[in-house]
Here is the input.
Amino acid sequence: MLGYIGRRILATIPVMAVVGLFVFSLLYFAPGDPAAIIAGDQATPDDVARIRATLGLDRPFLVRFWEWSWQILHGDLGTSIFTNLPVTTMIGQRVQPTVSLMLVTLVFAIVVAVPLGVVAAWKAGSLIDRLVMGLAVMGFSVPVFVVGYVLAYVFALELGWLPVQGYTPIEQGFWPWLSNLILPAVTLGLVYIALIARVTRATMLDVLQQDYVRTARAKGLSQGPVLFIHALKNAAVPIVTVIGIGIALLIGGAVVTETVFAIPGLGRLTVDAILRRDYPVIQGVVLLFSFVYVLVNLAIDLSYTLLDPRIRY
Amino acid sequence: MTATAAPYPDSARPTGLPPAEAAPKAPPPPGLAVAAALPDVIPVRKRRGKIWTYVRRNPTIVVGGVLLLIVFLMAVLAPWLGTVDPTALAPAKRTRVPSAQYWFGTDMLGRDVYSRVVYGARVSLLVGFSVAFLASIAGLAVGLVSGMVRWLDGIVMRVVDGMMSIPPILLAVALMALTRGSVQNVIVAITIAEIPRVARLVRGVVLSLREQPYVEAAVTTGTRMPAIIWRHILPNTLAPMTVQATYICASAMITEAILSFIGAGVPPSTPSWGNIMAEGRALWQVKFYIILFPAIFLSMTVLAVNLVGDGLRDALDPRMAKDV
Amino acid sequence: MDRRTFLKGSAALGLAAPQIARPALAQGAKVLRFVPQANLANFDPIWGTQYVVRNAGTLVWDMLYGVDAQLKPQRQMVESEEVSGDKLTWTFRLRPGLKWHDGEPVLAKDVVASLTRWMARDPIGLMIRGIQDDLTATDDKTVQWRLKKPFPKLLYALGKTNAPMALMMPERIAKTDPFTQITEYVGSGPMKFVRNEWVPGARAVFETFTDYKPRDEPNSWLAGGKRMLVDRVEWVIMPDPATASAALQNGEVDWWENPISDLVPLLRKNSNLNVDIADPLGNVGSFRMNHLHPPFDNPKIRQAVMTAMSQEDYMRAIVGDDDSLWKKLPGFFTPGTPLYSEAGGDNVGKGDIKLGQKLLKEAGYKGEPVVCIVAQDQGITKAQGDITADLLKQMGFNVDFVATDWGTTGTRRASKAPPSQGGWNMFHTWHAGADCINPAGYPAVRASGDKAWFGWPNIPPVETAIAEWFDAADPAAEKAAIDKVNAAACEGVVYVPTGFFLGYQAWRKNVSGIVKGPIPFTWGVSKA
Here is the structure.
């Protein structure tokens, strides 16, 4: 088991190296140039050239890649060209909002979607099933920002139940923190709910045909324990897989949600950095995302051993 | 136990075939008058019924297909659907609410939203289908290579894993930032972001097929690799790839909208549902119709594609229902 | 590993949430939440000349002089000044009791270092440096500046609102190379920058500096006493104007620097909000043509475009339906200012496509492609770009519309290469009216060829007239010189002004003391 973990972690290194090379090359060949943006509207071409030299942007590719890789391996993600702050600081400031948003979205999505999927499978073919599946398909057909605007308008502006935008750190109180995250989590979670509900239903359908379910019913267990304990446990593996895959989707959707609800998170940081050509920030954040994605997948693979004792590494 | 091959019992015969032939009719004995055949009392089942049964059995694929066809026709017939030039500016008539003259109102530069939405269907459909097609072809190639050529598998899969660990939206935005906004660049950017998933899928199929006895047999008998791929591997990848392609199409259309929202999408000189919404987003509280109409059409189209995908999946292989 | 051990382990991991520091606010502390026009990404107002950096800079740093609402420089950090009879030596005495945010007193050597750094980046500063003999601190509170030639506009240069402003910093910070960002944000202005609460792209926080000694006079723009009536100012950066509008209506922010004009009727209807013009000096929209390459190296073709365009179209695209927000601008200087001129501007923006087509043919346009760069992520450039594309197509140009972002525009416009090799023929931008009052600090109107702004217009009559303005001794001579500049600039088409437009600002009714001006002045603003 430990050997498996060790091997998996080692295997992440080439993946991360590929990501690093890819991201670095991408930005190296990009035509936009931070020197010009920094120099500002009133700058002369001389100023721009001088700033470019100061930033070291005119040295060859391999030199810059080598220096950068060396830095990363020492835990130094570099310094932002625009703000002069260390990239780790900039990321650190924005981790809490994004992680909070993801967590609340995840919990919300799982709590809503899994029961929906189970009920749909249980009543397969009925009106409830069709309704749930219909709503699920609609869930990932509507663009995220439209949902966000509608929710913000109805619940924040018109009804005034929740704030329109912003983020409150959890240190300032649980309810303030949560109230800022409810609308964004629902917005972001709709797609996720749709996905999880569908997979839950499909897997449950399969499981409910199995002999052991019939046995449990024959034993006299009522529907609740049958569904949720016996059947769901066995359906857990694909569901957990989908949750893992969905995290990559969440990060993408978070960019839009963070913009609509003005949450100071990593998604916005990355997009702003890309549009401004703030190379160190882009590289640092993409590396971080990849690392997190790889870790999440590892955690999911490990969780299989908990969920399904037949799986052993 | 006789060695003769007895005919199969009836229960094992596949349904749908006509009942076993009765003994051939002997000619009637001379002198016996044979009445003309009576008309059938029970009429033959009409062809119309077969279609209705199909619809009833596969509502998802039919509904999706019909919706998609409507949108497709709208895109093709755009110039004849009461539209004007979607790029014609009229700043003096900006942000007018929907009226008899401007069915969906005008946007911030006075362009007719209805025309832009109708023409926008072209771009969204083009982006969706192109990405689905290109990503499938490229993913197929990569997956095949990775699955069949063992020593390349490790390297290729590392690269694919690497690309997959970058969130697709960010990858697309970064690629768009390399070049200027245009429909082609949007297509290429989204395609690149979608290839890894197809490659993984194809590789999975290839790997599982590689172990099958009939493939091993084909290799042993000396069948060349291209023939093996063509005859054995490809047909088995078609079903999951087709289903995956429809999901990619739906996802590409939404990604195009999100790219436009971020500001890295198709430029407004070519209307697309994404950029109509992006341009109107600041005004959603006062002039919501600029976002509403493209949103409705986009949702409808993506829904249709998803339904077609679901229907295909159910029809082609119910076992795939588990894997989405 | 069994299930229990695994679960125990994962509970121990927890979430290591980095502390986003928030001080315990004192009871009744007044916080003003402000939505700025853009993100505050860096914070060196000498190094970065973006408007948002300058605006933030005025909170943290103070100046020797500051212009008032009539654009006349008034004393700020200076107690008295003397100029020698031959006008070559200036002596400034600092006010007593000025302190930096870290408690140190403000000394003359800090002023000398700050002025030196400022002069390296500011266009007028460079001119002064060119005629400078000596700049020294004769004692702790006195600065002496000796020039080789008289420079009547010195006080104006020290007090102007255009970036980079002559802000005073401690010597150790001011000694930073002018092309490197400063890392310490210590000033002597009325507010302190709370560095550890700064989240670039999301929030910037300022706290009132209790040891600040405002002047006695009432405040008027950068002049007079800068009295802070709130304890904290939080800049909340909103990437989405719709969100900002909703937040303002909901009371989650107090003051929005630049609401888009389409949202203004909605904000006006809200009984909790006030909406008014932000800056009477407004903005000048522009697009610039590349004078180095065909087809715009031909002055007649440039004039054809300038004549055919309709300023009304451009202005409506930018500000919407409110006619009180824009004016035609047949020239290059800000309306409502003493030097405004319409000389030679008859041919600007006639809105006549047919005439334009005719002029284009007469000028001998051979169908060369026009590479038109349009940044999609800035509302103003995007709107102008759409109008231009339409205009050029109707005139018969062969248009290559390049939709890109502001960052790429910034790079590409610096390239003098031919358009087909990474250069350009046309790009869009705009200038604050405060920057277009006179040729000082207005690089966009210069026509000195290689040394000019992007587009590199080379029109000697413009430069001669500008030199005349610099040497002008009295207002009448200045006006005459500017008229000549205007006429020559129209004739040679230094750039094409697309019109003069105003913007709004909006604030909640419980906030008072907000004035109109080129900078959102936070002193004198209170919150009920």
About this structure: Chain B has a mean pLDDT of 80. The first helix of chain B runs from residue 47 to 57.
